Amino acid sequence: MRNYLLIMRPSHWTKNIFVFVGLIFGGKLAGSVDEVLLAIGSALGGFFCFSLAAASIYIINDIIDRDADKIHPEKCNRPIAAGVVPIGPAVVLSAICAFVAIVSSYMLARSLSIVIVTYIGLMLLYSLILKRMMILDCITISIGFCLRAVAGAIVVGVFISPWLIICTFALCLFLGFGKRRSEVEQIGEDIEAFRRTLAGYTPELLAHMLDVTSGLAIVCFLLYATDARTLRVFGTNNLVYTTPLVLYCIFRFSALIQKGMYSGPVELTLRDRPFQIGFALWVLSCIGIIYANKLGISLGGIWAY
Questions:
Q1: pLDDT in tens, 139-151
Q2: CATH homologous superfamily for the domain 1-160
Q3: In whole angstroms, how far apart are CA 96 and each of 60, 87, 108, 110, 263?
Q4: Is the pTM of this model over 0.85?
């Protein structure tokens, strides 16, 4: 049973925290107790649906890549690559996860089920074709994260801001190239045998891509923080003052990934304490700034000094 749980990659469900972006930045944590609890419950439901949808894709991806994974220093221990989980039962489990995700999302909101189906279709296409197409592979992954953010906005009933899409895409494109950089560092000379696409990603090229996308992510956040609509919705542009935390998290991620200290964003997020502290402080700062005005607390006097 443990091996069947492992092929669903529960540790990777942390990627679905993007579902909660709409809950926080949509102002749904303020209001009556019933409204707040309903919003939180809906967001958790969306998280559950996306976790199962992602699990179904992880299983299919492991089946397709089982031979190549045997070359990877860490992925060779995955149950399907190691041969401890047969392909037949794995396919059945993947189908069950996808079915439950679609049905559950339909019960939450019809629009959510459309997003879930779109995500599953896109990721199947990625597993079969797009992951072997350089650059387009990372773009596809980023779109998948945008769908998570959109799902979170839908399920709690908030406006899907263009900034939600832009900032999520820019950040996740940075994370995607970061993952490719860690794979290149870990696999070494066997990289072409593992996946031909990765052979085109040289350390120098990926370092350049990380520089460009990290800058893009930071600029997008600054534009969002100073945008007129942000001022109108939150009553403040004080989100701009969280920029040092944004810079710290992005630069630390880039430094550690390029050193090959972690196999990818998930491992870094779950294991690196300084990054965790920086990210937690940023989230808490954003919540404090967004909801201070809604709760009648003015921060204007503080910044005046």
A1: 999 999 999 999 9
A2: UbiA prenyltransferase (1.10.357.140)
A3: 12, 14, 18, 20, 29
A4: yes
